[in-house]
Amino acid sequence: MDMNRSLDASASRAKGDAPAGRGLRLWARAMRVLLWLLAGLWGVFILSWLVLQAWIVPRIETWRPDLERWATQAVGIPVSIGAIRAVEAPKLAGVLPPLVPSFELLDVRLHDASGRSALELPLVRGAVSVRSLWNGGFEQLLITQPSLDVRRRADGRLEIAGIDVSGQGGGDHAAADWFFAQAEFVVRGGTVRWIDEQRQQPPVLLRDLDFVARNGTRTHELRLDATPEPEWGERFSLRARLREPLLRLPLERPAGQAPWDDWSGELYAEFARADISRLRAHADLSDWGVTVRSGEGALRAWARVQQGQVQGLTLDLALDGLDLQLAPDLPGLALSQARGRLEAQWSERGMALGFDDLAFITREGLVWSGARVRLEHTLARERQGARTAVQAQAVDLQTVAAIAERLPLPADARGWLARLQPRGRVDTLDLVWQARGSGPMAEHVVARAKGRVSALALAGEPSGRRSRNGRFPLPGRPGVEGADIDFDLDQNGGQATVAVRQGAFLLPDVFEDPRVALDRFDGRVRWQVKGDSLNVELDQASLANAHAEGTVRARWHTGDPAAQPAQPRLPGVLDLSAQLTRADGTAVHRYLPLSVPEDARRYVREAALAGGARQVSFRIQGLVDDIPFDEARHSPGSFRIEAALEGVDFDYLPAALQPQGEARWPGVRQASARFVLDRGNIHISEIRGRLDGAPGVALDQGGVDIEDMAHDTRVRVRAHGQGPAAELLGFAQRSPVNALTEGALATASASGPGEATVQIELPLRHLKDSTVSGSVKLDGTDLRLAPGAPLLARTRGTLSFTHQGFAFSGARSQVLGGELSFDGSLRPDAQGRAVAQFRGSGSASAAGLREGGLGPLSALAAHASGSARYTATLAFRGGAPELRLDSNLQGLALNLPAPLAKPAEAVWPLRVETSVLAQHNDQASSDRLSLQLGPAAQPLVDLLAERELRGDGARLLRGTLAVGLPAGERMALPPQGLHAQVRVGELDLDAWQALLRGSGADALASAGEAVPQAVSLRADAVLTGGRRFHRVVVGASREGAVWRANVDANELNGYVEFRPAGPAGAGSLYARLARLTLSPAAPSEADALLQQPSSVPALDVAVDDLQWGGRSLGRVEIEAVNRGGPTRVGEWRLNALRATLPEARLSASGNWAPLGGGEGGARRTALQFRLDVDDSGALLRRFGKEGLVRGGKGRLEGRVGWIGTPFDLDLGTLAGTLRLDVERGQFLKADPGAGRLLGVLSLQALPRRLVLDFRDVFSEGFAFDFVRGDARIDQGVIHTNNLQMKGVNAAVLMEGSADLARETQDLKVVVVPELNAGTASLIATAINPAVGLGSFLAQFLLRQPLQSAATQEFRVSGGWADPQVEKLARPTPAPTPGPTLQ
Questions:
Q1: Element (H or E) spanning 542, and its range?
Q2: CA 1166, CA 1133: separation in Å to the nearest integer?
Q3: Phi, psi of 30 (to 5 degrees)
Q4: Are 713 and 682 in contact (CB under 8 A)?
Q5: CB–CB of 1054/1071 below 8 Å?
Q6: Phi/psi zone of residue 548: left (φ > 0), alpha (ψ -120 to 50 degrees), beta?
Q7: Residue 246 has pLDDT above 90, yes or no
Q8: Closest CA to 1031 of 1001, 987, 1077
Q9: b/e per residue, 690-709, with b = 16+ CB within 10 A?
Q10: Which Pfam families would you find in this protein's record (predicted)?
C-alpha cells in the first residue's frame, strides 16, 4: 500500500515539472530577443549620433538649400534662410562633442502666397538630437525678437506668418503638423501685428511677446504672454494644455481635418486689465446676439475642450463700467461694477449654466450680491424625456425684475416679472421639470419645487372682469408684501407655510383699498390639482393688524360645470369663516368687499367715528360671482357679518351725506349696539348710548337699517331718548329740527325733564327725498323762548315736527306770576312763506315781573304792585322773534318817580312790537322795536329803535326816545344812534339814580347798553346832587365816550365837555362858564368825590363869575391833571389855580399824592401859593371878616402841606413855611373871636397890662407902616422869630409860636417906642431868621442905650379868645465891645 502511494507521488511531480521548464525557456528566449533589440537600438542611436556629428554638423552650410526645401514642404509656404552655422559647445569629458548639437539660422523669412514677407526671423537657434533627427525635426527651436503678422483676410480666413491656420476649406495643415511635431518651440521678445482686412480696422500691435510650446507624443502645452497697446490694457497671458487621443481610428487623419480636431484639454486666459469694448471692432458676437459697448477690468477664463470642441467655459470677472446688450431687441444692461464667476457647459446631451457669488451694481443703483444659481438641462433621449433642474440661493428678486427687460428671457417671463414686480430674497430653491417619456408622451411633465423665500412682495393685478350683473369687479390676482414662505409642491399640488410680519396682502378688486396691512399673519395653504379642478385650503390662520385680530379658515375650489351647468369654472366657489377677537369699528368700511355697493360703504365709512368689537364673525359661502347673494337670481349662498359693538361713536346721518350748509344731525356717542350685515342689508339694532352734545340724554330703542343695497339703498334711522330738557332742546337747536321750526327755538333755553323721538328715512341716491318726523315732549319743563323773554315755567305740551313743519298745541305754562295758554305752528305770512308763530294770553303780576329776568323792566317792577292781563303773538322770521304784546296795565301800580308814577286803577295802554326789517342768507339781520306807554295822542314814553341782530344779541343802530312829547312832535329817526327828547315839569335825577342803584348793577349795565348820542332836555326844575336847578335847558351830544353840552339855567350858563374815565386813565372835564353858583356844601361835595382818587378827572375850568355862599369870587381858573395809570402811582396834580379879584390875585400849584409812593394809604396835599393883596381890609370884608384890618398892601406866600384832601385842611398835620410882607395898614379894634389870629397880631390886650401909657398906640388898633416876618409850620404849630410891625409911634417885635388846631399862643412881644429917626431906621431893618429876635434886640439896645429904658417886653400866652399878657422884667445889658449891628 505504501509503495503504491510513493509511486503515485513521484508520477505527480514529474507531470508538474515539465510545464515549468518550458516557461522558463520561453522567458529566457524573450529576454535574449529584447537584449538584442536594445543593443540594436543603441547601435542605431550611436550610428545616428556619429552621422550627425561627423557628417551633418561639419557640412551644415551645404545642407542650407535642402533645409529650405524641406522647411517649405513642412510649413507649406516658401521659406528662405540667409545663412546657417553650427554653434560650438563644450565637449563631453573634454573629448567628445555634445550629445545635442545646436545650429543658428540667420535671416530666416517666410513668404505668403503673394510673395510678401510674412515672418522675418533674424536669428533662429535650433538644437538637433538623435530623437529629433529620427523625427525629421528639432529638439528645440528658439526664435528671438521675431516680427509676426497675424492676418484675417477679407474672406475670413486666418493666416499666421502667411500660413493659413483657419482649418476650414481643405488643406493638409503641414505647417501645423510640423509645429506640433517639434519638441520645444520658444519665442522671446517678439512682436505681433494683427491685421484685420475683413473689418478694415487699423493694425493692432502686441509687444514683448513670449511664447513657449512643448509638444510630447500625445500632450501639447502652450503659453503666450504679451503686452498690448496701453489703451487695450495690461500684459495678458494665454495658456493651453491639450492631449491627443490614445487611439486614433482610422490611423490616417482624414483630408482637411486639423490636427487638433480630436484633442481634449483646457484653455486658460488671464487679463489683469483689459478694455473689452475694443473687441467690438475685431470680434463678431452677432451669432450670440451680444454687443459689448464698454467695460474695463480683470478677466480670467477657463475653457474645457473635448474632441476639438469647446464644451465648457468658466469666467471670473471684475469689471467696471460694463455696458452690454444681450440681444438686439433688448435694452442695454449697464453695470457700474460686476464681480463673480460664470460657468457654462454644453454637449450633445444638454447644457448647464450657473454663477457663484455673482455681485454687480447697476448704473441705477440696484445691487445684486452673493447669489448662486445653477441651471441644468438634459435633452430628451430615447424613452426618457427632457429634464431641467434649477438650484438657487440668495437671489434678490427685485433686482431680477428690474433687469428682466434687459435679459434674454422669454417674452412671457418678462411680462410676468413686469406684472408681478417681485421683491424679496430666494433663500433656497430646488426646482425640477422632468418630462415622462419621449415623443408625444413627453408633454406629461413631472414638476417638483421646494424652497424658501424671505420678505417676498408680489404685486396684485385686477382681474379686468366684472360680475355677471356688472355691479362689481371679480377678484383679481392677489399679491403680498413682507411674506416669508416655505413651500413644497409638485404637479399635483403642494403646501406652503406663510408668515407675514409688518407686511400686507394685496387683494385687488376685493376691497376699495386693496392693500390690507398686517402686523402679523401665520397660516398654512394647501392645494390640489386634479385635471381642470383646483382646490385651495387655508388652514386655521391667525392675523392681526391695527384694525382687527382673529383667526380665518377658508376653502376655495373651481366650479364644476359638468356636474352643475349653472356653475362656471371661474371665479369659483368660496367658503370662508372668520372669528375676530378685536375689531376697530371705524375701519369696518375698509373690509366691506366691493360687492357691497359704494353708497353703503360710504355710509358706513362716514357714520362710524369710534368704537370697536370683541366678538365678530364672518361667514361667506357660495359662488364668488354671486356674492353677496342679494338678488333672487343668485345661487344659494351666505354672506353674513355679525358683531357686538362697544364704545361706538356713530353718526346715523353723516354730515357728508347731508345737503351743503344744512345743520348736522347729532350722532350717538359711547353706545353699544348689535351689527349684522346679511346679504344686501345692514341692521344696527339695540343701540344704547348718549346723544352727541347732550351727555345727559340716554338713548334707547335705537336702530339703523340699510336696506336694498343692491339697488335703491335706503337708510332708516329710529331713535328715542330721555333726559334733561336743556339738552334735548339743544338737540333741536343744533340739528335740522331748528330749520324745520323756522328757528323758533334757536335761542330758547330749558330746564327739567324731557323726552324726544326721531325717525329719519334717507334714500342715499336721492337725498332730496329724505323724510324726517319726531316729537319733543315737555312735562313740567321750564322753558325760555329767547334771551330776555319771560320764563315759561312748568310747561306741559308736545312739539311734533316733520320735514314739512311743526305743531305745538294745548301748551300751558306759568309765566310772570300767572298762567299762559299758547299754541304754535307754521303759518304762511303775507308773502306766502311759512313762518313759525305762537299765540297766547295770560296775566302777569308785579312779583312775576320782578323775577322774570327782563333786565331793566324787572328792576322797575321792584317798584310795582298788582297784576295785569295781556295778549301776545310771537313769530319767527329768519331765526329772529317778532313779538306783539298788548296790555292796558289796569290793576298794576307803578311807584316810580315822575313822570312814570301810576295808580293801580289807571289805564295806561302798553304796546310793544318787534318786526324783522332785513334778512341775509335767510337769517334776520335787523329788526325794529316799538314801545308806547300811555295814550296814543300823548304817550308818556314813545320809543322807536332799529337794531342789528347778531349771534350774541342785538345792537342798537338808531332810534328815538320821546318822553312827555305829543305824538306828532317826535323827531324822525336819526342816521345813527339814539336821540332822546325829554319835556317834563320837574325831573328828579337823584330819585332816578337812586332807583337804578337800588335795582343792582345788572340794571345799570342794561340801561347803559343804549346810551343816547344826543339829548334834548327842557324842564322847569331839575333836581340833581341835592340841588335844584331852575328853568333848565340842555342840548347835549355824545361822540364816542365824550359828552358835549350847552347848559342854561338860572344857576349856570356855558359850555361843558366831559370825557369819562377809561383804561388809559381818569376822565377829564373842560368847562367855559359865564357864571356858576356853588352851594355852601360844595367843598364837602368835592371832598366826597376825592375819596376815589382814580376817579378824579383832569380839570380845565374857567368861570368868569364864580359865586359861593352869596359872595363873588371873581374869575377863577383851574388846571389839574390826574397822573395815575396802570403802571404808576396815582397823583392828582394842580398845575395852576388862578383867582382874580378887585382886591387881590391868587396863584397856586401843588399836588395830591399817596404817602410813601404807594397806593392804598393816606394821601398828602402839597400847595405852593402866592397872594398879592391890594387892599387887605377889602379882601377880608369880601370873605365876611369886616372890621379887622383897614388898608394894607403886600403879599403872603409860602409852601404848605397836610395829610388829607385839598378841600379838607387838617391843621394837626399842617406843615410848611410862610412869608408875610404887608405895608400901610391898620389893625382895627375887634373882638378877638372875630379875628382870632389877627387879634393876636393887633395887640389889643396889651394896653390893659402896660405900666406905661400906650393906649393911644394900641387901644383903637395899631396902624403900621409894615408887617413882615417869616414863619415855619410844624404839625399845625406856627413858629416865628422875626415878626416885625412898625407903626408911627412904636415898633413891635415878636417871636414864639401859635397852635392853629388848639388856638393857643406862646409869644414874646417887645415894644420899642420910636423916639427918633435912627430908631425907626434901625427897626426897619429886616431880622434874619437865622439870628432871631434875641440877638437882634441885644445888638439894637447896645447901639441905642437911650431906648433901653423905654423898651417893654411881654409874654403872651393862653387861647386866642382870651390871651394872657405878662410883662417881663428886662435885665440891663452890660456894655460889651463887639461887632456892631448889621
A1: strand 533-544
A2: 9
A3: -65, -40
A4: no
A5: yes
A6: beta
A7: no
A8: 987
A9: bbbbbeebebeebbbebbeb
A10: YhdP (PF13116)
Quote the cell numbers at residue 631. 338678488
Dist CA 703 CA 684 (whole Å)? 5
Statement: residue 5 has pLDDT above 80: no
Domain ranges of the chain: 624-810, 1051-1184, 1210-1368
Q: Which amino acid is at 398?
A: Q
DSSP string, 767-796: GGG-EEEEEEEEEEEEEESSTTSPEEEEEE
Placement of cell 387879634 in the chain: 1239
To which residue does cell 313743519 refer? 805
The whole-angstrom separation of Cα 1141 and Cα 1174 is 10
Burial 964-993 (b: 16+ CB within 10 A, else e): bbeeeebeebeeebbbbbbbbeebbeeebe
- 754: buried, middle or exposed (CB in 10 Å: 19+, 13-18, 0-12)? buried
- Extract the C-alpha cell encoding 553: 379658515
Angle at the Cα of 411 from the Cα atoms of 408 and 412, rounded to 5 degrees: 130
Q: What is the pLDDT of residue 237?
A: 92
Q: Alpha-carbon distance 1225 to 350, whole Å?
A: 155
How far from 1284 is each of 790, 1174, 1297, 1331, CA to CA, in Å?
82, 20, 14, 14
pLDDT tens track for 471-509: 778 788 888 999 999 999 888 889 999 999 999 988 888
Q: What is the 8-class DSSP label of residue 967? A: G
How many Å apart are CA 825 and CA 802, to the nearest integer?
12
- Torsion on CA atoms 952, 954, 957, 961, rounded to nearest 10: -150
308-325 exposure pattern, b = at least 16 Cβ within 10 A, e = fewer: eeebbebbebebebbbbb
Beta-ladder partners of 802: 773, 805
d(CA 326, CA 706): 61
**CB of 772 closer than 8 Å to CB of 801:** yes
Reported as a single tens digit per residue, the pLDDT across 663-683 is: 787 888 888 888 888 877 888
CB distance 335 to 363 below 8 Å: yes
Indicate whether 440 pLDDT > 70.
no
Q: Give me the phi and psi of 135, to 5 degrees please.
A: -85, -5
User: What is the biggest distance separating any 2 CA atoms in the chain, rounded to whole angstroms?
Assistant: 225
Distances from the Cα of 45 to the Cα of 35, 41, 90, 99, 1148, angstroms: 15, 6, 21, 11, 161
Compute the chain's Rg from CA coordinates: 68
Q: What is the mean pLDDT of residues 828-852?
A: 77
Residue 1272 · residue 1320 · CB < 8 Å: no
- Alpha-carbon gap, residue 915 to 884, rounded angstroms: 9
Neighbouring-strand partners of residue 458: 480
Element (H, E) at 1356: strand 1352-1359
With contact defined as beta carbons under 8 Å apart, do 1131 and 1124 qualify? yes
Q: Higher pLDDT residue, 786 or 1347?
A: 786
Residue 78 to residue 146: CA distance in whole angstroms: 17
Q: Residues 1221, 1226, 1230, 1232: what is their CA dihedral angle, to the nearest 10 degrees?
A: 20
Output DSSP code: residue 438: S
H-helix segments, 197-252: none
E strands present in 785-901: 791-802, 805-815, 818-828, 834-845, 864-877, 880-887, 892-894
Q: Is the CB of residue 1093 less than 8 Å from the CB of residue 1130?
A: yes
Tell the burial category of 288 from Cβ atoms under 10 Å away from its Cβ (0-12, 13-18, 19+). Answer: exposed
The closest of 1217, 1231, 1247 to 1309, measured between CA atoms, is 1247
